[in-house]
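Re: weekly structure request thread

Next one in the queue (593 aa):
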Amino acid sequence: MLFHLLDDPWVNASPAVEAGADSPRDGQAVLDVGAGELLLDAHRFKDLVVDLPTQKPAIFRQVLLPIVVDALGRPSDAAQWAAMFRAGKFSAEQREKLTAYFDQHHARFRLFDADDPFGQVAGLRTAKGEAKGSALLVATAATGNNVPLFSSRTEGDPPPLTPAQAARWLLHTHCWDTAAIKTGAVGDPQVKKGKTTGNPTGSLGQLGVVMPVGRTVYETLLLNIPYGPPLLSDDLPQWRRRSAEGDLEDTLSCATPAWQTRTSRGLLDVWTWQSRRIRLLPEQTPDGPWVTRVIVAAGDRLVTVPDHEPHTAWIIDSAGARAKKTSTRTTAAAVARPRRHQPGKAAWRGLQALLAVDWEQSDATATRSGFHTSVLLGQLNEVRDRLPAAYPLQVELTGIAYGNQSAVVEDLFFDAIPLPLTALDADGILYGCVLEAADQAEKLATAVNHLSADLRRAAGSDPIPWDKGQRPGDTLLHALDPLMRRLLAGLRQVGEDFDATERGLLAWEHKAAAETWAVAEQVLSTAAPGTFTGRTVTQGSKEHTYRLSTAERSFRRRLDDVLARRAAERKAARTAPSPEPTDGEASSLTTEG
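Done, posted below.
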């Protein structure tokens, strides 16, 4: 029973439009390819097409990126990285190195190999010889406590997986599997009563993944490879840390049921982290092999998310802030922890963290807190002068929200936004403009919420709680979402042109005002008749009168404060003297009168 990740098709990819007649298999919207073809012809493919957005970073991290870096090494500095990026594809020499790497490690990429299956443990079994349904790998399928609300299958009806599907979900499980109790495997010395407890989520489950994406798979590969000095000699991908290689201590092997809690050895190690011990149990059918049963047991645990983790932004907690939270004294330097995405919140609402490129390790004093962008976006800030100013960079944000002690998948987060490269320059024009526009959107939502709260108080009821129900500000943010994305894409074209940027922001303010008034009119139209006279509320020693007129007046004032350019333009139009009519115009006006 053979299936090979380098040779057999298991990755779905869309051909690059830019490749034109040079595209592989012209006329096909999506191609099924093996990892070998995908990498050698990476410039001919636009992007990966996945079953679930969380599969994409798993495929890149567990297979594609580590192969490239292990075979070719990583660029040593910005100049070498930029030269590779401008080349647009792997050179003939690099293709030869990749091909030689495929040949050297060919045996390591067999999915169902009896002795060393890819990403698995050969012969993995439980004491009772049990196995569970393949739904255990599929994040959207019902299994155990993880039961999606509208799942069409039950745990007793696991979905049969083709080898290609099984490969993708295998990688996904290493990255995103739920936490808590896992099946105990024979040969694991830490098993107690047939179980292991305290298992964390997969390696990406603790992050809010930030992944820059280019025009082709080749560009995306380069955008996700941090340049720097050569990797350490013991920083190897998981397929080179198998005990069969004999070049490392058995304690580092991921091919046995035993696991350990340790720190990451480096970039290749953390990319291919084996957070579970897995065995796929395929069945041969007239239609070929299918996977319906699997074993998933405890795997390696990270002591902490390493600072060389490239695919996350960071929250910087100062020692003073931590002491306030824990009521303990500390003089330690600021500590960085991964920033996770909030489901339901658009990616552009987190631009403050994505654009925070000016935080330096040397500035990690006991009093400084804030955000720090991902390693990869920070790198793009350093090389942006070597790339076209209008380069169409996309940033994809991916994450999973877990519930009930991280034992179930509660929600999935995915969003992608266009990001102007010049916005990464903290001293540039676009940096402040992008953050200003995002802040304006939040303040407009707050203004609409205040209008709703004032009208509800005037009617004798309480405002809508911030954590319950649907507030009008949420409706407004949804309406502003396409405008913000259009603004980001447009600012990518104007670069550092101040006048063009101001015109773009003024246009944004006019459109944002129109959307804000559309939501506000709905709030005003539903106001109860009693809001006209209003109601007086005593708070402490002060009295506050809430009525329709004061609520609307306050809303208009907030709107003008937030959209200052629009307000100034309107004021100038009102105060500008009317031009004297010419004789012809005067005659026309007289006739019309």
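Residues 244-250, 361-367, 584-593 have pLDDT under 50 and may be disordered. The longest helix spans residues 429-458.
Next request, please.
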